[in-house]
Amino acid sequence: MELYLIVLLSLIALIAYFLILKPLVPLLILKLQLGDKAILMFYPISGLLGVFTKSIKNNHDVMETMNKALRKNPKAKVILSNYFNTPCILITGSEYIKDTFLDHNDFEKINPFMLPSFIQRGLLMMEGEGWKRQRKFLGSAFTFEKLKSRLPMMNKVVQSIAEKDDKKNLNDFMARITGEVVIKSFFGELAEGLQLEGKDAQIALIQLTGEISLMYMENVFLFVKSLLFKERTWDIFPGQKEKDIVRRVENVRMKVKELIVKRIEQLRENPIQDEEKMVFLDLYVTEYLKQQKQKEQQIDIEEILHQFITLFFAGTDTTATTSGTCLYYLAKYPEIQSEILEEVQQVIGNNDINEENLNKLNKINALIQEVFRLKNPAFVTLFRTVKQDKQVQEIKLKKGWVIVQMQNANSIQDSHFDNATEFNYKRWLNKGNVIKNDNGFIHIPFAAGPRNCIGQHMALMEAKIIIALIVRKYKILLNPAVEQIRFGVKFLQCVEPDNCLLFEKRI
C-alpha cells in the first residue's frame, strides 16, 4: 500500500510540475524583475485561451479582461500567461511590439490549423528565402494600381449577393461577399458557381476554418494533442468530428487542385500576353510554365494550392468581420449611419464606386479605422515560438517560449488617444495628429514591419465598397429579439450572435 501511495504522490507531483511549476516559475521570476511593467494572467492548462474564453463568458467581449487590466495598469508592457505548459508572453508595449515585428526572423509562427498540406507553403506561414521569393512575386499584384481593375467586379459581387442573400446571418452574409471577391480575384471565371459540400465555396471554407479554430478552444484533448503531435494531431486517436474535418479538408484540396490543373492546361495552349488581364492564378500558372520551360522549377502545384487557401483564409474572414463590425456600429449609432449615408449619396449617388469616388469616402474610411482601433478582428497576431534565446528590451525570452503581439493594446490608452475607450469615428477626420506619442507601432491594424499584411489595400477597398453600397440600399437596425450582443471569436474577433442585425430596404 505504501508503494502505491508513493507512486501516486510522485505522479501527482510530476503532473503538478509539468502543468504548473514549469510554466509558472519563469513567469513569476519575470514578474519580479519587471514589476508594474508586467501583468500576470496564469491559468493552468488553458492559459491564454482560458483568458479569452472567460472574458467572453464574463464580459461578452474576448478582449475586455485584458483591456481592463491594461487600462488599470498603463505602465504594463507585457502580459505573462501560458500556452499549456509553456510560458507565453503577450507583447503590449509599443517599443516591444516594434522590436518583435522588425526581428521577425527570430520567431516561428505556430500553424493555427495543424493540418498537413493546408497553408504551410503559403505566404502567411513561409519563412526565410521562400517567404522572400513569394512576397516579391505577389507584391506587385497587390498595389492599388493593379487592384483598381477589380473595382467593377467588387461592385457587382456586393450588389448581387446583397440582393439574393436573406441577410439573417451577418457573418455568413459578409463572408459570401468577401469570399466571392477572393475567389474571383484568384480564379476568375474558372470558379464560377464553385460549390463545396453542397454550399457556396466561400461559405464552406469559412465554416471549415472557423470550426477548426473553435475546436482548439473548446476541446482540451485536441489542443493538448496539437501541442504534442503538431501536424499529426488529426491522425492520433481522432474522434468522428476530427475525421469529418480531415475529409472536408481533403475535398477542398481536391477541388482546388482540379481548377489549378485545368488552368495550367488552358494557359499552356493559349498563354495570356496582357498581364493586366490576369487573375492571381494566371500569374502563378504563367510563372509555373515559364520555370518549367527553363527547367528551374521553384513553384509547383502544391504551392499554388497552399497560396489560394492562404489568401482565402487571410482575405475573406478579416474583411468580412471588419465590414460586419462596421455595420453593427452603424446600427448601434443611427446618427453615424445617417452621416455615412449622406456622404455616400453626395459622393457616389446611384453610381457604382470607381477609382475617383472611392478615395472621397472619407467618413467611411474613418469608420473603418475606428473599428480597427477598438475591435480589430485580428486582435492578436498568430502565436509564435522563440527560435533561440533572445533579448527584447529588458526581457530575456527563452528558446521555445511562445510570444503573441497584441497590436491593439495601445489603442485603448488615453496616453495615445483622447477618450480612448469612446467610439468616435470623427477623430480620424481631424487634420492634426490623431495619435499621441506615436512611434509608428501604435495603430497598426495590418501589423507592421517586413511581414505586414500584403493585402491591406484590397481589404480597405473592399470594406469601403461593402459599407457604402449596403448603407445606400438598406437601413441597418439592431435586432430587438437579440438580448445580448457580444464580441466573441471564431478564428477572428467578431460581433455575435449572427442574427444581431436587421436590414430594412430603403424606399
From TrEMBL:
Keyword tRNA-binding applies: no
Database matches in InterPro entries: Cyt_P450, Cytochrome_P450_Monoox
Membrane-spanning intervals of the chain: 6-29
Entry-linked Pfam families: p450
Keyword entries, A-Z: Heme, Iron, Membrane, Metal-binding, Monooxygenase, Oxidoreductase, Transmembrane, Transmembrane helix
GO MF annotation terms: heme binding; iron ion binding; monooxygenase activity; oxidoreductase activity, acting on paired donors, with incorporation or reduction of molecular oxygen
Similarity section: Belongs to the cytochrome P450 family.
Protein name: Cytochrome P450
